[in-house]
Amino acid sequence: MSLPFPSFDPDGQPPVRPRRFTRIPLRLLLPNMVTLLALCSGLTAVRMAIEDRMELALAAIVFAALLDGVDGRLARALKGTSRFGAELDSLADFVNFGCVPALVLYLWGLDEAGSLGWIACLIFAICAALRLARFNVMLDDPDRPPFAGDFFTGIPAPAGAICVLLPVYLELLGVPHVTLSAFMALLYTIAIGLLMISKLPAWSGKTLGKRVRRELVLPLFVLFAVFAGLLASYPWLVLSLCSVFYLALLPLSTLRYRKLMAEYVASAPAKASGSTEVPADPPA
What we know:
Elements: H1 26-50, H2 54-77, H3 83-108, H4 115-138, E1 151-153, H5 157-164, H6 166-172, H7 179-197, E2 201-203, H8 217-233, H9 235-273
């Protein structure tokens, strides 16, 4: 049955049929769902901090950091990486590990320093944004040495978020909150922010998850269970020790990076001399 009032096209072209929506595989959605779950956890930490439930706020940030380490690996394992997922992950990281820790610190005690406390929070959040933007740009750098994937340039945003909350961990462990606590935390917050945008090589640990020797599988499970039990039983002590230990490893990772870079630079002339290609003439 024809329509009583058919559509009229002045150019005489047939009407364009509407585009049908294609189905998206579930494996492409699962990593994004994990990222959104991490974002919800980070935003919930702000609510917990406003309600003065700092323990739950810190737990929410730690949970978001754990999920951040899962979504990327899950996407690569399921072959579900996408540009949309990468952009969503960057935005979630800025909120979870830039804005949320700064707000939690301000509600914890940086407000006692007045406007200086708020400026320190702004510096930390801005440094997190700059750190993430630089990370996205460096992914497309073709001149990176082969070992550069084992190091971050500056400490990553999740590690910075965990480390910057060290003053809150110490107070929950029983360290008294005195008048100078806010000003000391202010300087510490700015220092962690500057470490994120620095060029300091920080060991990434990505090579640990590629291959594990068969005889080390069971001991690794035991160590993971012990760490999970300690984190659940003594969360603030474990987080404090992990933060101090991570910051103490930065000089060692820098020395390791410089050693690898020196070996790479020394081997570069040898590789160039062994090449059979004739160099092109320089432009006039």
